[in-house]
Design brief:
8 strands
Length: 150
Amino acid sequence: MANHWKFAALALVLAAGPTWAADCTAEIEGNDAMQFNKATLAVPQSCKQFTVKLKHVGKLPKTAMGHNWVLSKAADLQAVATDGIAAGAAKNYVKDADARVIAHTRIVGGGESDSVTFSTQALKAGESYAYFCSFPGHSALMKGTLTLAK
């Protein structure tokens, strides 16, 4: 009988194991109504790297309703978006070598997806981070908050 309890305890520990590991990925969807499906993302502090997968669930092409996912400090959102518009579509609406940009995907159209993996070393607890779409005119609606979570 004692072995039965040891086995049961071990089974519980093994079953619970994956819940202990931090999930260092997130998926976010953009649509033809200029909306992300998530307003917040939390990056576990234990993650050394974090991956964001952007999926465009709409039908419109990227030339008409393209979306990307750009991460910066919240205070830099407007300036990064403005500089991104000037950079143009060929640069995915992100200024070359913009130190304010922590990470970004390429522009995707309906049915397409892209992902970006970035080091979490640049993230500081208590700092306010914003993610947004830098396609012209989209950042006013397509934005959210990213936090470093314990």
